[in-house]
Amino acid sequence: MTTKLKKKFLTKKYFLANGFTRLKMKGYALFCSIFLALPSFAQSVQLSDEDKCQLSRNVIDAIGPDGTVSEIDVAISSAEIVASCNKILIDSASEQRPLFELALAYILDQQYDQARATLSELLILDPFDHTSYFLRAAIAYSGDGDPVSALSDVELAIRVAKDLNMRNPNVYPKPIGNYYLLKAALEMKIILNSGLRNASKKWQLDRLSNFLQELKRNSKEQSSVEFIEGISTLEAKVDSAIAALDP
After folding, report:
1. Distance of CA 146 to the CA centre of its chain
2. I want to staple 108 with a disulfide (CB 3.0 to 4.6 A). Which of 7, 22, 78, 186 is the partner?
3. pLDDT digit string (tens) for 108-149?
4. pLDDT of 203
5. Helix runs in the chain, H state only
6. Per-residue pLDDT reduced to its tens digit, 42-58
7. What angle do CA 106, 62, 44 make, to 5 degrees?
8. Comparing C-alpha atoms, which of 47, 56, 46 is closest to residue 223?
């Protein structure tokens, strides 16, 4: 089956147009979990461990000096989303997995509104699904997205992941670096787009710069080179923004 046909089958719109009910859609989500596991499809979306930080790097690279984002396709691409969730998909055995994979299918098909709605439905079923909070924030982080809501989602993702890790560190890992990078990128965008005076913006950006320096120090021994480079890239953008605010 061609990629074009696969994408057609992976759209809720196609099924709703043919009279499928909500109940049957849930059955279709189960079908997706099998379909996405087919070698020909999985081979086209799974990336190596080296690429797991690519989502954060591209989100950061898409931020201009004024804190704006260019295109959602630049900030978020389907392959990068799948890469950031690759391990979670492999390890996940929960009943929410089919619905989660359906959300990924929407992202692959660039149907971001449907992906957000599916992730929101997942969070109703499981309020501790920090990956869905993160993905919803990443999708919202676009030219027309709400950075404040996205920041709230990222903070929830971090809080939930920390709580789960404290309860059972052998099962739940600490929040991944992508969460902190996206949080910092969103904070930078909110600060620069705010109505604050330049002096206040500069003070907040200084605090953000200090946070990134601390994150780099604490991450050097246990994080990949790509993640450290991602921190450095955002640091440079924050420093550039601070310099632009100087009188």
Report:
1. 14
2. 78
3. 666 778 888 988 998 888 887 777 888 888 777 654 568 888
4. 93
5. 3-9, 12-17, 22-35, 39-45, 54-61, 72-75, 78-91, 97-108, 112-125, 130-140, 147-167, 177-193, 198-219, 225-245
6. 333 343 444 444 444 44
7. 40
8. 56
Q: Please tell me the predicted confidence (pLDDT) of residue 205.
A: 93
Length of the chain: 247
Placement of tokens 């670096």 in the chain = 177
Place of tokens 């002096």: 199
Mean pLDDT score across all residues of the chain: 65
How would DSSP label each residue in 159-179? HHHHHHHHH-TTTSPPPPHHH
Residue recorded with tokens 């990629």: 3
Quote the tokens at residue 220: 């050097």
Q: Return the structure tokens found at 8.
A: 């057609």
What's the rounded Cα separation, in Å, for the pair 146 and 15? 30
At 146, give phi and psi (nearest 5°): -95, 105
209 pLDDT exceeds 60? yes
